Amino acid sequence: MYKKTLLAGSTALLMFLGCSSKQYYTPEQSYNVSSSAMGDKIVHYSRNGATLASGDVLTRTQRVDLKLKNGFHFINNTKNAALTADQHGQCNIITKEGTVATVKFPQALVAGTLIGKLLVYVLQNNNFGVYDFEKKSIIYSNKAQKAFAIDTRVANPLQIENLVVIPTLDGKLTILDLKTLKVSKEMYVSTETSLNNVIFLGRLNNTLIASTPNKVLSISNKGKKELDTSVSEVVIYNKELFVFAKDGRILKLDESLTIQSEKKFKFAHFSVATLYKNSIYALDKQGYLIVSNLSFSKHRVYKVDEVEGYAFVSDGKLYYNQEIINLSNLTYK
């Protein structure tokens, strides 16, 4: 009986120490910041946009009234059209004239890019392919390994001339030739078993940059380079690459992933991060908004509310907790 009691007490002590040892970012000084009521709520978040309860959509550059039907959410957009989807495989293409095309997939669409008459897509079960709206049929299909847990910021396919790079939910990139519909190359960004989908896909000069929550990869004619770190966010800004790591570091890198400069905010856990008008903005989950210059030589921290739910930045405005903060009003000086 004594041994059992001792064991139970030891287990409880270890659990207590484990919980109490969790540490949080605490700046030496913080400043107050004003916000305005959002009058709405973010109900769905994706790589390229956020869907509001009202049916409006936040893209990276603007707030758009798409009047989305209940259950539909924003996936991606081109200059003239938006791709929306629901949880049952239904997809709608919306323009200023309204819904102009519809397609039904056997699984929910989680990522997609419109390229002319084609939709390059990734489904919830990690099947992917190309749908032709003119032929009203799937003209290419493939499948990757099942992914049982994913980060909601699923990267969308990226067109590079006649090729399209398709990021799958198991951390792989499939490069498909749109003319021949043949795979020209496949490669893994990382190979973790959970939360390993590609969360960022972009181009920096002639280099392809991809990231999962576990690793950043650059691919060019000089070969592949890797940055092995846990990732909160990746941003390409003015031909420079910024990585916000889960250990509180903000890294500035070149296209070969060589670190040019960095700044660590000890114990910070970034909920959302962006660059805007030559400033860096990073929101810690506990409610500290860090504003820094691009060289990390100056920064200022603002105290806001602890982050609850989704957060998104659109056109220099931070939307979260049903509040809006205008980033232009904040400075690192």
Question: Overview of this structure, please?
Answer:
The chain has 333 residues and is mainly β. It contains one helix and 33 strands. The protein has one helix spanning 2-20; strands at residues 31-32, 36-37, 42-45, 49-52, 56-59, 63-65, 73-77, 82-85, 90-95, 98-104, 109-115, 118-123, 127-132, 137-143, 158-160, 163-167, 172-177, 182-188, 200-204, 207-211, 216-220, 223-227, 231-237, 240-245, 249-253, 259-264, 270-276, 279-284, 288-293, 299-303, 311-314, 317-320, 323-326. A hairpin with a 2-residue loop joins β27 (270-276) and β28 (279-284). The strands form eight sheets. Strands 1-30-29-28-27 form a five-stranded mixed β-sheet, with no helix packed on it. The protein has a four-stranded antiparallel β-sheet with strand order 2-33-32-31, with no helix packed on it. A four-stranded antiparallel β-sheet has the order 3-4-5-6, with no helix packed on it. Mean pLDDT is 93; it is low at 1-11.
